Amino acid sequence: DQQGGIVLVNRRAEQMFGYERSEMIGAPVELLLPNRLRALHEQHRSRYVSHPATRPMGIGLDLIARRKDGTEFPVEISLSPLQADDGLLVTSVIRDITERKRTEAALRESEERFHTAFASAPIGNALIGLDGRWLLVNEALCEMLGYDEQDLLATSLDALTHPDDRVLDHDRKQALVQGDRRSYRVEKRLLHRDGHVLWVLLSVSLVHSGSTPL
Question: Number of C-alpha atoms within 13 angstroms, CB side, residue 35?
Fold first, then answer.
């Protein structure tokens, strides 16, 4: 209600917070928050009541809720005002996003491990678009070809391939894209920035960014 008192809860809210319905009804909504956040939430609640609107709560912020046993968990909350006979009520839809946060953290950790391994590898590594553009290159590849990172990213694999070798892996690349093979290797010549020829063993495999192959 307008004073922040809980007037109605569903069974899922009881399960989420560990309280019986009788313990929640009539209690201030700040019961469901960590102690350190309660005073600030009262201020936010007062401002919301003066300008009620349907919107997400705490846009851009990590929202934290507190169970009866004191454990805290991340939540996503949507607010909707409801004009009742006895005054303004606010419907609060609360989602426990613990699993989503765990998944996001695991993904970030995986990406960090990949980038560390990619960047520090002693051999040349690159992510290349299907159009031949360099998307990501490591230091070893830059040193091999005589470019700094930004200059290399401004070129393409085809541009640095010896003209006589540009058709060598065309059919193999098409087989990758069509799913007929998972990877291939080919010996070919690349052009160093100063113009001399480098013989390399190119090992290629297809990866996907979402639904887009690279």
Answer: 3
For residue 70, the 8-state DSSP code is S
Which of 1-13 are b and which e, b meaning 16 or more Cβ less than 10 Å from the residue's Cβ?
Answer: beebebeebeeeb
Compute the chain's Rg from CA coordinates.
Answer: 29
Residue 51 CA: distances (Å) to CA of 46, 79, 88, 192: 9, 12, 11, 64
Which residues, in sequence order, are bridge partners of residue 75? Answer: 63, 96
Q: What does the pLDDT average to over 20-28?
A: 96
pLDDT, tens digit, 9 for 90 and up, residues 99-136 = 999 999 999 999 899 889 989 999 999 999 888 899 99
Compute the half-sphere exposure of residue 109: CA atoms within 13 Å on the CB side of its CA: 6
Instruction: Calculate the dihedral angle through the C-alpha atoms of 117, 119, 123, 129, rounding to the nearest 10 degrees.
Output: 100
Confidence (pTM): 0.62
| Amino acid of residue 198 | L
Residues contacting residue 4 through CB under 8 Å, at least 6 positions apart: 28, 29, 30, 42, 45
